[in-house]
Amino acid sequence: MSMPLSDLLNALCQLTPLEEAGDWDNVGLLLEGSRRELSKVLLTLDISPEVVAEAIENDVDLLIAYHPPIFRGLKRLTREDPLTAMMLDLLEAGISLFSPHSALDAATGGFSDSLMARFPPHALQLREGSLRIFELEEEISRDELAAYLQQEVPLPYLRVAGAAGPLKRIALCPGAGASTFIGLQDLDAVFTGEMKHHEILEQVRLGRAVLISEHGHSERPLLEDYQRRLEEQISGLEFSRAVSDRESLELFGVD
Questions:
Q1: Which of 107, 111, 132, 188 has a C-alpha 20 to 30 A away from that of 64?
Q2: φ, ψ of residue 41 in degrees (nearest 5)
Q3: How many angstroms separate the first and last alpha carbons of the chain?
Q4: Which domains does the chain have, with CATH numbers?
Q5: Which DSSP string corresponds to 110-132?
Q6: Rounded to two decimals, what is the model's pTM?
Q7: Is 224 helix (H, G, I), strand (E, B) or coil?
């Protein structure tokens, strides 16, 4: 089976309303390929030459990249630049490119909700954009929470700082969420994918536990949930996740 590009875009936007994206973001159809009837869709967190090659080799019609590769203005499309070379490869293959990014974070059932669901039993207190604040049913220590998340998200490792616990009221934001924590009151812990040094120190001074994974580690496992939602809501298409999509950072010198 297949579906017109316009119909698939409408379905994607119903599932993830683009108006919920941050005003700084660049979401939606970023590249319109020549294929008008679509049957195969590949999901990835990031665009890389390996992901583009995988999409072309597998003859997909649409590539959904969570992070928008076109973010700032492009002045020229040439093969001298690795980014625009990838865009040209996709165009030549007729493949369209769609990015939901912060709209998918904010949407009900999107990345932030999916990440929140991996925490111990809790009650939601606030849903605001990509930010979620919730209260655990039972208090837990920082290290217990870190071990729980490492298994349930899953995460290869976590970096932690600040209060050892007990923790009950937690804020989270996938990706780089430090700005969403500014001005928040009555929190015991924050979790996100990355924070700057002084952002960590600020949270520690406020008496909070800080739990940080790598940026992509807080998001990439959630693609599985997104794929499941797409398959439930959009019938007749083949959805898969790019096997070549990997976290760019690796630990070195740590046993």
A1: 132
A2: -125, 130
A3: 49
A4: 3-102 (3.40.1390.30), 108-218 (3.40.1390.30)
A5: SHHHHHHTTSSSEEEEEEETTEE
A6: 0.93
A7: helix
